Amino acid sequence: MKKKILWMLLSFLLVAALVLSSCAKEEVVGEQEEEEEEEEEEEEEEEPAVGEPQYGGTFTMKFAWHGGIEADVWDATDKILGHSARTWGSPYLPFLLLGDIEEYGPRGTNEYTFQAWECVPETYLGGSMAESWEWTNPLTLVFHIREGVMWTSREGVMDAREFTAYDVAYSLNRTLEKYIEYSPGDYEYIDSITAIDRYTVVVEMNEFYADWTFHFGYGWLNPIYPEEVVEAGAADWQNQVGTGPFILTEFIPDSYATFERNPDYWDTTTINGVEYELPFIDELIFPIIPDESTQIASLRTGKIDWQVRVPLLYSDTLADTSPDLIQEMYLQGTTPLLGLQVNQEPWNNRNVRRALMIGTDMKAIRDAVLVSGEIHTFPVSPLTPYYTPLDELPESAQVLYSNDPALAKQMLIDEGYADGFKMKIYVASGMLVQEDITMMLLEMWAPLGVEVEMELLEWPVLAGMNAEGTLEDSWCEQMVNTQPYIALGTLADPVRKGWYWSGYDDPLFSEMHRTILKTSDVAERTDLIKELSIYFLEDCAFIPFPSPYLVSCYWPWVKNYYGEIECGYYNWQVQTSLLWIDQDLKAELGY
Predict the structure, then answer these.
(1) What percentage of the chain exceeds 70 in pLDDT?
(2) Single pTM value for the model
């Protein structure tokens, strides 16, 4: 009996243990299932809803500057390649002011498209490193520097630290010293640049200067370099630091530059009421692809996400082979032109210069070389308030576009060139439009007795020859037409002989130009620029050719981009910080 009771007790305990074990197992499984469900919910919460910004991904952008020149020098104070340093450094370098595309562009009030090259009108600028700025009197400009912005670190160069007004004053004065050496007359209006405390920079002037925003905001005297980088060697890409949305991590000559997301970038954006830290993309790549056909192939196959300047002649084939590719046409912000050395014979003869332009078929050049374009865009663009349409120009200017070889030939005969003459035209390698135009001039001017020889050289070589005054005859280049102070001053005022100066030295022109720069009233200044632009066109120190329409091409997976071309001088810092990649759409389209 005792054995039976003992057996029953053991059986009960065994059953109880199994039940308890089962319950515990179910409890554990239930807890695991609840945890998994919670994790899945968290993961679902982390995934952005369709159409909302996404972080991550690589963005490849192809831009063009002077025949595809790459960053051989990373210091913007370099006399020849400083422009290149600004361009390649735009993702990370600090600028005081940049175009406020969120406020005034298509995503904002749509007052300005930001499609003009090299120029942002003062009205449409916003604070970057300068949170605000003010004129405390007609000759004192004060920049209030944004607080709490950090320089990135670079091993062997500097630790991360705050960006201050002392950095601004140091860098602006360093660049100013260099540029006074290159072009002394441009900066005589500046008395001093001083940091009066950690976040305030004061610029004292001795006279008003109309183009101060280009000098101090986003152009010549920018970007800002810390003293540590200068001491380490600012010309070396491996010494670069910045405050921008990206960090330069790799540069392979003749191949590409890579920039990674700056996790400490200061700016944010608000989309649909939600504030987001910038930038969205993890990696930005600037490829170096000199060959145009290779560029188009890379764009067509999705290896390039955005190509800023695509010749219009590729538009139809791209539409056929890549129907999803978005194409937006805009007028180029420069005028192709032939700069004649007017301090040499026969170019010191005004009528000889005018004869060559009169004997040029501008419509034929537009149709053959550009596909589509505007005939008259010089020295200011139709996109500016300073422009006078062709049919409103005085007869003495309209005749320049008449394509009258008989008149041109007679003018040359009258000036003692009945048998014509020989001339050399320099063109920078890779500038295909200028090459094609020059080849057409060879045929157009032959009946006038003008024998043209084209010589191709690398752009830095030509720029150096130009600066040294060793160019012969002429240089077929291009000049910005959206910024009159640059176009008129650089091309024609002797105090700015560092760049595309043809030896032009006209006292009346110089007097009018300097009056413009000192005129603070916008309406009065606009009228003066119109008048001077016509005067300069008629003098033909430069023979301008039609400006082409170009196409900006980008894929539909590039989101939060509204067609803006530049936010400064060859600068895309703002656009690239705001855009994001729709990875699902990119995969859906097969890329």
Answers:
(1) 89
(2) 0.80
